[in-house]
Design brief:
The chain is mainly alpha-helical. Helices cover about 60% and strands about 5% of the residues. It contains 13 helices and seven strands.
Amino acid sequence: MNGNLNVSSIWSVLVSSSDGAKIVSALNNGDTPKGMLFSPSGRVPSMIGLWIMAVGTVILGSMWATPTHKVRVAAAPSHAERDLEVEVVEVTTKAAFSFIFFASAALVLLFYLMSYLIIVIIVIFCIGSSTAMFHCLHYLSIRIFKFRVDSFWMRKTEIPCCGEVLYLHIGLALICMSISIWFFFARHEEYAWFLQDIMGISMCLLFLKSFRFPNIRISSILLCLAFVYDIFWVFISPYLFQGESVMVKVATGGGTNEMVPMLLKFPNFCERCSAGLLGLGDIVLPGLLVSFTYAFDTAKSLRLVSGYFLYNVIGYGIGLIITYMALLYMEKGQPALLYLVPLTLGTTLVLAIKRGHLKEIWNGIEMNENETLMPETSKSSV
């Protein structure tokens, strides 16, 4: 044995017998096998964390957006709930095209002016998430604590420029603003991802509560446009923008030492691995379809297995798993909607054709005033 052998330079790998035979054959032929170190284990925890948060948000948002008729009849909304109504906006064809157009314009603008606009984006995120957290906490506090009308939190006080405000609303507003301010000044700390996720999930929940698809036709238009949008700005844009993916550069802050906060983060347990990321759009856009199927199942009194909601949730979860597998394999950012849209929208359409519901689900269900799925909110269209 050579006394100069450096033991620390010996690498041990585990391969299958067939791959091992190929390596031995290559060595016997005088070839030098080539390979690379692949260690996905450090990224798996972040993928699991993001998967749980995304799927959970879609499920909770769908249920919040569509309260059951039985619950509505059992308990009328309190004056605290009436004081905080959320307007429900039905998405239209015009809104679908406008959304993709303005989203694309915003991406290009941020691509070139990221260093000037990133702080503005973070501030807007903090303000918007404060509102979203307020609505979410308000709903939870009313449902969990069931405050009496004569309790302290249900009393009102006069505030300049705001009029009469419940003490409950004041307390919740202080909590939400404190979280947003905390995140703004601590956004570079290791624990900031937790605050960002709370804020981001709240925004997704309020979005799913505030917007809805009236039918699968509108859903198909928006999701198909978003499908093309995601692929173009991730995979095709590098050929038009000096080799850089516009979506990836904008999402990662474009070298400003900041990150666009409109995404969920989860830390990796790998020294050379960055945190796992998932854009809020990859939650709310398929989430609107999942929410619609939950409302459809409720209106038709369909059971879980015979309805559409369960299969959309499963499709969404599988789509995320495929996204993560592609990320590990390609080692580059993936357009999640490339996998999510076929497995949610496609699943819905195939099941509707098979069950004979296509015409009904394509045009939507007309319901009378007593059967409306969202009675505590007013509706409008965009």
